[in-house]
Amino acid sequence: MLHFRSIKFVVLLAVLLGAVGISAAQESPFAGETIRVLAFEGYTDEALVGSFEEQYGVTVEEVYVYSNDDIFANLRAGGGENFDMVTPTSSIWPILIEQGLVQALDTTKLTNYESLSETMRTLPGATDADGTPYIVPFSWGADVLVYNTDVFAEPPASYDVLFDEQYAGQIAGWDNSFSLAIYALALGYEDPFSMEEEQFNAVKEALCAQYPLIRLYPAQISDYVNAFQSGEVVVALTGGTEVATALTREGVENIDWVIPDEGTLAWVDGLAVTQGARNPELVHLLIDHLIAPEQQAQLHIDHAYGLANPEAYALLPEESVALLERQDPAANADKRFVPWAPVADFDLWTQTWNEIKAGC
User: Fold this and answer.
1) Which pTM does this prediction carry?
2) Domain assignment of residue 300, yes or no
3) What is the pLDDT, as a whole number, of residue 219?
4) Cβ neighbours of residue 335 under 8 Å, at least 6 residues apart?
C-alpha cells in the first residue's frame, strides 16, 4: 500500500515526466507538423504512434485503405503529393518505384534498420535496379480461411469450401483484386501472378460462378467481425490471421483459421516515403519508430501481424510467439507459400475484380 507521501511523489513524478515530454515537444523542430499516412488498418494506431507524436509534438493523420488497389489509386491520383507515408504490399512496390510515387530512403537515418531480419532487408522489389532502397519491410502474414468451429468440426482442408453450395449465402470473399491470385492457387496454377490468358479467364469464370454463393466481400476487419458475430458468415477468405484475432477479442470463441492444403499467398507490407512528402526527414523518424522492437511487438499483440524485427520476439508472450510460428512457412513445409508479386497489367486485374464484385 502506498503511503500519502509516496502518492505525492508518484503524482509529482508523473507531472515532471509529463513536463519533460511537453518540453521535448516544444523544442522539437517538427512541433505542430502533421504526417499524412495512407495505411492499412492498425498500422498507425495510438498504441504505436502516440509516444512518437508526444516526443516530436506532431500529429499522425491516417487515411485507411483496404487494398493495394486503393493505395495505387490514391497515390496515382495525386502523384504522391497528398500523403507523406504509405504502407504498400510487396506486390506493388516495383510499380510505385517505377512510377516515381515513392522516394529513395536514407537507411543511415534508420537506427533500427539493421535489426530487421536479413530476409526482410533483402526482399525483392524493395529497391530500384541500382539497389537503392525505397521500401522498409514492416509486417508480414499469409492469406487464410477463417471459419466457425460450430459449423466445421474439422478445419476446411481446401478452398473448395468457398464454392460449396451447402454454405450458399454464408461465405465471405475478400475485397481485393489479388483474390484472383488466391483462386488461381486454388485451381492449381503454378504461378498465380503470371497467369496465361486462358488461366486468367478460367479464374474469372470460376469467381463469376461463385458470386451467387457469396454473402459479402469484406474490405475491413470490422466487416468480417460483424458478419461472423451475426452468424451471417461461417467461412471466409481473409488477408491474414488478424480477422480471427479480432473476433476472439470481441468474445467470439467459436472461430479459428487454417491454411488450405493448396497453400497460400504470403505478403509483406512495407513503409515508404511518398514522392510528395512535405518533410521526408520527419517521415524517416516515424518509419524508424515503427520498426523498433517495442512498436513491432505492440503491432503483433494488437493485430497478430507478423514482424520484420526479430528483436521484438523477446518482448512477446509465449502464446504470441506460438501464433507467429503457426503461420510461418517453416512450420508448414507441406504447403506452398507463394509470395505476393507484381502483375503485368495491374489495371486489368482491378477492372476484372470490379466486374466480378458486380456479378459479372
Assistant:
1) 0.84
2) yes
3) 87
4) 259, 260, 261, 262, 263, 264
